[in-house]
Amino acid sequence: EAGVAQSPRYKIIEKRQSVAFWCNPISGHATLYWYQQILGQGPKLLIQFQNNGVVDDSQLPKDRFSAERLKGVDSTLKIQPAKLEDSAVYLCASSQGQFFNSPLHFGNGTRLTVT
Amino acid sequence: KQEVTQIPAALSVPEGENLVLNCSFTDSAIYNLQWFRQDPGKGLTSLLLIQSSQREQTSGRLNASLDKSSGRSTLYIAASQPGDSATYLCAVLHTGGFKTIFGAGTRLFVKA
């Protein structure tokens, strides 16, 4: 099966600019996650979708971050305006659903550098 | 609040050695625990998933154990190889909000 696809792989922007990331999960996976991973740390959940509904966005900085999952498949994560502390790797993951034996499958991530 | 800790943060071993990576979590209210591997510049690859009712899972040279009551898990790697060099992360699926929470990882280097 094809894995989780993310683009772009790398992005460099100046602070206060905007940026968008795209994710295509594994076919048939109902749950989609966006994680932020700062160098040397474990991934931190930003937002979790079940089909096209939001399950958890408690750690999403909603004043600057937004995410959508149209038609319950692809998803985009946007940052506007970016800050220096947003420099991180943004990982998308998917799973078959909210099942106890359903592992997470990750994409290769987008490395964002804000200057 | 669920917190996940991994010790040590980094580990260097000679090839062929058996090794143990540790993971601890503060709240035993979990559905499962997963171990992942992350290579530089890559995403995470799921290695093993242990459901809360299970004690261990095995895959090839890897064996993961879970002691939910004490909030601990170990990942045992037998006969380590240079190709095992990577960062290993554990994550728990917390019952509070059905959220997966990660540790910071253990960076493993296996010397040839």
DSSP helix count of chain A? 0
> Counting H and I runs of at least 4 residues, what is the number of helices of chain B?
0
Spatial separation of the terminal alpha carbons of chain A: 37 Å
Mean model confidence by pLDDT of chain B: 94
Whole-angstrom Rg of chain B: 13 Å
Termini Cα gap of chain B: 41 Å
Q: Can you summarize the main beta sheet of chain B?
A: 6 strands, mixed
Q: Tell me the helix content of chain B.
A: under 10%
Largest sheet of chain A: 7 strands, mixed
What is the molecular shape of chain B?
A: globular
- What share of residues are in beta strands of chain B? over 45%
What structural class is derived from the secondary structure elements of chain A?
Answer: mainly beta
Q: Order of SSEs of chain A, N→C?
A: EEEEEEEEEEE
Q: In terms of structural class, how would the helical and strand content of chain B be classed?
A: mainly beta
Work out the largest interface and the residue count of each chain: A-B, 26 and 26 residues
What does the average pLDDT of chain A come to? 93
Instruction: Give unreliable regions of chain A as ranges.
Output: none
